[in-house]
Amino acid sequence: MKENANNHLDDLTKKIIKDTAIERPSFNFTNTVMANVNAIAENKATVYRPLISKTVWFFVIGLFLVVFLYVLFFANQTEGLGWFNKIDFSLPSNYLPDFKFSKTVTYSIVLFGLMLSIQIPILKHHLDKRFET
Questions:
Q1: Smallest Cα–Cα separation from 133: which of 41, 62, 46, 15?
Q2: If you write DSSP's letter for every residue of 79-102 in order, what string do you get?
Q3: Angle, CA of 67, 71 and 73, to the nearest 5°
Q4: Quick one: pLDDT at residue 73?
Q5: How far, in whole angstroms, is CA 103 from its chain's centroid?
Q6: Measured between alpha carbons, how far is residue 70 from residues 57, 73, 75, 108 in Å?
Q7: How far apart are CA 8 and CA 2, in angstroms?
Q8: Residues ≥6 apart with Cβ < 8 Å to 66
């Protein structure tokens, strides 16, 4: 009985295949497909996101303004710099005897070192994550 059912299904599929016409793609099928592929590739371009988001920038700027306004209006002018006065940034007298760093240069060097020590791990993590895939 199974053989008879299989023969019947086999004859039916052969008849359907003979009756159907062979489909042919349109004249510009390849060009149309490639145009669609290029359009999809253009839409999926790499979206660049900033390393530091806008909210973090607003926080940093706000913090800077608060510290600046505090120093401008509320800081005591006779107050010392605390631990910062104890660090000696002068070069040995053998090299340049009259050369001394100003406070601005000292602050910029310390700030540069601080920012560099913060940015290197952030950039390393970002690049590792970008090249991971």
A1: 46
A2: ---GGGGG---PPPTTT-TT----
A3: 115
A4: 75
A5: 35
A6: 20, 5, 6, 20
A7: 10
A8: none
Closest CA to 121 of 62, 50, 61, 51: 51
Report the run of H or E that residue 3 belongs to, with start and end.
helix 2-19
Q: Tokens 């660090």 correspond to what residue?
A: 87
**Considering only CA atoms, which of 79, 109, 111 is closest in space to residue 91?**
109
Q: Tell which residue, 84, 130, 80, has the closest CA to residue 110.
A: 84
The three-state (H, E, C) secondary structure of 23-74, written as one string: CCCCCCHHHHHHHHHHHHHHHCCCCCCCCCCHHHHHHHHHHHHHHHHHHHHC
pLDDT digits (tens, 9 = 90+) for 100-129: 778 888 889 999 999 999 998 888 888 888
Residue 59 banded pLDDT, cuts 50, 70, 90: very high
CA pair distance 10, 31, nearest whole angstrom = 39
The ranges assigned to domains in the chain are 2-43
